[in-house]
Amino acid sequence: MFEGGDRPWLCVLAGRAGTGKTTLAQALAQATGACCLRVDAVETALGRVQDHVGAAGYAVVHELAVSNLPLGHDVVVDAVHPVPASRAAWTQTAARAGARLVVLETVLPDGREHRRRVETREADIPGHRVPTWEDVQADGWVAWDVERDGPPDRDRHHHPRGRAARRAGGPATPVTRTRASEGPGAVPSGTAHP
């Protein structure tokens, strides 16, 4: 994702259900060889062994990231991150692991397309319950705020290109946002915007 540097990178995707996070996370992991950590998978597994999952899925994914980054593995995290505290915690995780942090927010401004994606989505993890449109509307999402959640990092946002792009340098706090493309089966564009 970044040219130069010898530290692994941690790319955290944030956005409401149906905005393209999983598609983007999987494409990024496949293009770069990064480890892909999906909160839905962890929460589904935890739900098989306990009644209430709560924030446990996020806690597990943080520790899995910290376990992989020091080994030199880049990590992509796929999770909603509905509230500022869940977004901010990744700064501490990246610092613990000595990794470069990039946060990508997926946004789908077309409400009809967003609803269509949510309502036609099928579970791709056995036992996973995909959210309904009503669930998405009531998910407690706190809108992104540049002052609180960080500014875009346009200078350091590059398309992943081979082995040289697998390491990152610089401070561990920039934020890059990406807008999901519109239309059936569209892949998020990766275009940064403020």
Instruction: Count the E strands.
Output: 5
| Model regions low in confidence, pLDDT < 50 over at least 5 residues | 152-194
CATH superfamily: P-loop containing nucleotide triphosphate hydrolases
- Per CATH, the architecture is 3-Layer(aba) Sandwich
How are the strands of the biggest sheet laid out side by side?
A: 2-3-1-4-5
CATH class: Alpha Beta
- Anisotropy-based shape: globular
Largest sheet: 5 strands, parallel
Helical proportion, percent range: 25-40%
Here the CATH topology equals Rossmann fold
- Contiguous helical run count: 7
Estimated structural class: alpha/beta
Beta-strand fraction estimate: 5-15%
What is the terminal separation in angstroms?
Answer: 19 Å
Report the radius of gyration as a whole number of Å: 16 Å
For the record, the count of structural domains works out to 1
Listing every helix as H and every strand as E from the N terminus to the C terminus, the arrangement reads: EHEHHEHEHHHE
Overall pLDDT confidence: 76
